[in-house]
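W.,

You were right to be curious about this one. When I first looked at the sequence I had no strong expectations either way, so I just let the prediction run and decided to look at it fresh. Below is the sequence, 118 residues in total, followed by the output.
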Amino acid sequence: MRYEEFDTLVRNSFVEGGEIRWGQHWFNTLNSVNPLLANEIRSTKLDPFHRDERVEDASEYVRGKWSTISDEQAMDQIADILSVPEWSPDCLDFIADVVRMTGRTYYQEEVNADATQL
């Protein structure tokens, strides 16, 4: 997923006047599609989760960093998220392919089930 696709997704999926504020929605969406970048801004002055007015600055930062994350860094982050200490290279390649194709990560149970089919 390119940054422009993320931006379109986050704007089109926001419900004005809903239960979740704009900053919460923006951060949660970022976390679901690019957890590595979400973790970079989590609990910093850029984190918009509690302050909507930070979305613009966070967006600028994320746009600049979006394409600088390597596949290896993304796979390391995914393994961390799944709380799995080690994956075989085949499993990591599978997970990276899933993320590239779908733009999201699978929960551990889904990955375990899918990985057994390799």
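Here's what jumped out at me. Residues 104-112 have pLDDT under 50 and may be disordered. And, maybe more interesting for your project: Residues 89-102 form the longest helix (14 residues).

Coffee later to discuss?

I.
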